[in-house]
């Protein structure tokens, strides 16, 4: 205790965080780094593997059907008009010339005060391994004045002799480089996590998903953090997982961390709780807005309240898709082939345009920006165009019908049967349980969007309202606590985290929409979104680092040998208990 009274926080982070790796996996990106660091690495959570199959799939994903049905299209148009009435802009099919609202035009150079840096076009990834012999041959040819001829000869050999010893394709490519591979290259892109769950489907089997997770994490640890496999027994791992993960998925990730990556010990924390600690809060309504999933959960005195959890199946990438649809509908998008599903590099471009230009504010909002086209192996083309209705796509968070959901096939139900339930007897509350069914059969859980329709684990968790917008989800989550004093405190302690939280104008929009959503019979008249103390993108990771450093007892940590030998039964048969979603045991200082 004397040490804690005298130690400087920076010294504590440096001493106890130098051998603690914090891993915060997401659907689109993974945030990973040493707890002693100020910010983590933020790397695209994907992998591209070289393939010789013909025909090949450029992207191996659950996005098997990206077409919009007639009913969905009508609902989207209706949602657009509803948003237009709120923002005081023309309706979808109304001529701009007929409206009487003042027109707000962005500067012609596409400048905005939040992002003044000029963004160049993305370059295609070099998919060939570097060959020392070929580089030396280039140097000798330069001496003879024939460097250009030699380079052209090498390119010809790359296309004609793919299997030659001199010019080989890289076997695997990770992160953003994997997303920038040309569709003409013989690679298949995989994303092991999709919409907050392991991306298991008939086209992407469980074993391959887990192998890809291991490969990505091992690459980052070795090449980016410079922690080789032989030294990892000197490091511990903090796994900060989304609320959407179920116990089977968490166990598989723990096995990767302890068995395959060979960390000495590990612990699991929930993302919402970590976010609260990352901002120095003990009580808050945490709204995590990621690339593909938005989740809401309330934290009271350092403990999450599982009955308050709400999961909405949309995020930043859906806003990017809506951005593209809006521009095409208004015929402002250039005549280029932009396909964010088949060409991940287009998704990178759309995300960047969305972050640069989209914001929530009243009045018509246009700007002039540069759109890039990426065709096969050709250099990127630049197109200067007028971008319109830039305040509509982010409003889809409140009107989700604007963000037409992707159609997903159900995962294999048998995979989610957990015969060693890690959550058994750890939370003494009554939740609706899945009815007993014959082997191999599960009741249909068709709620909300057609995603994970037969996901049996949802039946054992609090019901999620997946068809509602963000304001309704926040209001419902807080009101479900049932205590007026806590409700008032939570409505004044809303915390927005994740990349979408950086959207300009989102904070006042959330405050206004939530206040109008609260029923009139509730004695609540104040809603406040707290200003973040750290970058909202990394606050969950930072909170995990703080929790790991301050956990001096480490009673809930799992040691590698115990996990490999006994699985969830640690030591003398004691089950790994902490909370409903496997957040780590509350530490003594939480309630102090």
Tell me about this structure.
This protein has 592 residues and is α/β, with parallel strands linked by helices. Among the domains are: 3-45 and 191-278 and 537-586, ATPase, nucleotide binding domain (Nucleotidyltransferase, domain 5, 2-Layer Sandwich); 70-90 and 316-402, ATPase, substrate binding domain, subdomain 4 (Actin, Chain A, domain 4, Alpha-Beta Complex); 281-313 and 467-532, Nucleotidyltransferase, domain 5. Helices cover 31% and strands 17% of the residues. It is built from 16 helices and 21 strands. It has helices spanning 2-6, 9-17, 70-87, 132-143, 147-160, 175-179, 206-224, 247-260, 271-278, 316-329, 344-357, 470-479, 484-491, 506-517, 539-550, 560-566, and strands spanning 20-25, 29-34, 41-44, 47-50, 59-60, 103-105, 172-174, 187-190, 193-194, 197-198, 236-241, 265-270, 284-289, 294-300, 303-312, 364-373, 381-387, 494-497, 558-559, 569-570, 574-575. The strands form 6 sheets. Strands 3-2-1-11-12-19 form a 6-stranded mixed β-sheet, with helices on both faces. Strands 5-8-4-7 form a 4-stranded mixed β-sheet. The radius of gyration is 25 Å and the shape is globular. The two termini are 14 Å apart. Mean pLDDT is 78; it is low at 95-117, 135-165, 421-465 and 569-592.
